Amino acid sequence: GGDHTITYPILQAVAEKHGPVGLVHVDAHTDTGDRALGEKIYHGTPFRRCVEEGLLDCSRVVQIGIRGSCYDPDPYKYCRDQGFRVVLAEECWGKSLVPLMGEVRKQMGDKPMYISFDIDGLDPAYAPGTGTPEIAGLTPAQALEIIRGCKGLNIVGCDLVEVAPMYDVSGNTALLGANLLFEMLCVLPGVKTM
């Protein structure tokens, strides 16, 4: 629940304890805008604020599922200029993400990292209950591959955001969100699963 603004203060606290962390960020949007309606803090700016404050190890930031309408001819330039790896949704269509997560695991190494999962990273056919749905997103199976692909990493925190149940009368978005959070709990260090 909550919008993606909540990740910003969480990462402030995490970085206070662990220093700059790596990030696996699943989302339709990069959330690296500078302002909206004159405000510097809103759900489209948290990762720019995190970069500015040195909360992220930018060489270990991976954004997966990025897509949607843009107002700029090079909408991901800021992210790439920071050293982020941007994996567009179209690079994920029709295939397993297990190989991608093998690369991500190497990139993260054994240093502290955080998982931030915006439910709109998934296609709205599976998760319509969100404020900014974008077509042609990831599947629930790919979401599981991403989360399960983080098992064994030095995960120091995680979140799942942007679930808006009132936009989904079926309840499927909330069910999917709850299951993905459960999966995140299962990959935390020291958690034993069968």
UniProtKB/TrEMBL annotation:
It comes from Anhinga anhinga. Keywords: Hydrolase, Metal-binding. Belongs to the arginase family. Agmatinase subfamily. One of its GO terms (molecular function) is metal ion binding. GO terms for biological process: putrescine biosynthetic process from arginine, via agmatine. This is SPEB protein. PROSITE patterns: ARGINASE_1, ARGINASE_2. Signal peptide: none annotated. Pfam families: Arginase. The keyword Metal-binding applies.
